[in-house]
Amino acid sequence: MNWYSYKAYDQEHHIYEEGMWADSEDEVRFKLRRKEWYLIGITEMHSVAAAHGRWRYKDCIEFSYRMSLLIESGLPMSSIMKFLMNSGGSIPYDILNEALQRGKLLSEALRDTGFPLIGCTLLQAGELSGTMGESFRIIHRYYEQEASWRHKLMSALAYPLFLAVLMIIFTGVAVGFILPAFRNVFASMQVHLPLLTRLLFAFGDWWRVYWWWALMLAAALGGLLIMVYRKPMMKLRLHQWWWQHIVCYERCHAFYLARLCRVWSMLLDSGLSITDVMALTANLWNNRYATACQQQAIQAIQSGRGISTSLKESGLGSPLLWEMIAIGEETGEMVAMMSHCATYYQRIVTQVTASLERLMEPLMVTCMGIGVAILVIAVMLPMFQAVTMIHQ
């Protein structure tokens, strides 16, 4: 669905310049003819996804909270959308209302506007089971937790990033402007410069002359790496290497399993079967290799194999997850086992984040201290030699 800007006139020759969402120019002409308007000109502006872009966590939380209240109050979806269209804000209620009038499901309309995949998956489960109000409450709770975790992570990284930027600025100023000021002083004293000082002087000279070449080279190299990474086969190989060599450690795969186990438990609790849950969440790993592994697990489950065995053979999960799922299969408490796993891995994520927060600050301070020490030594060594020559 695209946004079309048009210019038309009615039977009284009043000219209107407006716009509407439509699938094609023919649909715009058809709607105008029904209003007995005559088209002068039409221009396709942008698509739905381009018009709105990605949803912010703030919008996801606000939208899911409003929808859960209004749906559980018993209002029909058409009345809900008409009511919310007057609320303003950055949420595209007009686009959603137009899509619903065309017969689309709300989950499909949200996906077209860039709503996060996890939210669309949870809502789709609610549409299948008839519990959309409950699904929106789950989405609201989920994105509140995600926003809280992201806020903690950004707070933990704010000070180290500030120190890193400060260190880069200080190093650039020192090498490009401060050190060259000492060159004439050392030359007039006829002091033999140490290797470290000569290297810093040479780097400063090179940076002042070729800094723009360095920036262009860095931009070109970054663009080349992005182009290579976007190739499907290269992305799959990189994701496979990452999964097999990095994510195999518990503290790394906890970042994946904490979210997936929580989503699995929510979907299973909504009444979906395990195969439907696996099919809906196959793309939530943000890793193509893991998605392919889950597709293999789905095929194994459909052929009659156990869930824990299928996940283990496909390489998804951890020994703890496999054991908990096996217990859930035997006792019928799959939702509870998934919730326990989500809680366990969330604690690991919290511990790792806290450890990184405690580690990053002294690490950045140490790096800054080393950089300052190198600059001081490069300046002080020739000065000590000059003082020694004067006393001799």
TrEMBL record:
Keyword annotations: Cell membrane, Membrane, Transmembrane, Transmembrane helix
Pfam families (UniProt xref): T2SSF
InterPro entries xref list: GspF/PilC (IPR003004), T2SS_GspF_dom (IPR018076), T2SS_GspF_sf (IPR042094)
Record localization: Cell membrane
Membrane-spanning residues: 157-179, 210-229, 363-384
Membrane topology annotation: Multi-pass membrane protein
Protein's name according to its UniProt entry: Type II secretion system F family protein
Organism listed in the record: Veillonella magna
Organism ancestry: Bacteria, Bacillati, Bacillota, Negativicutes, Veillonellales
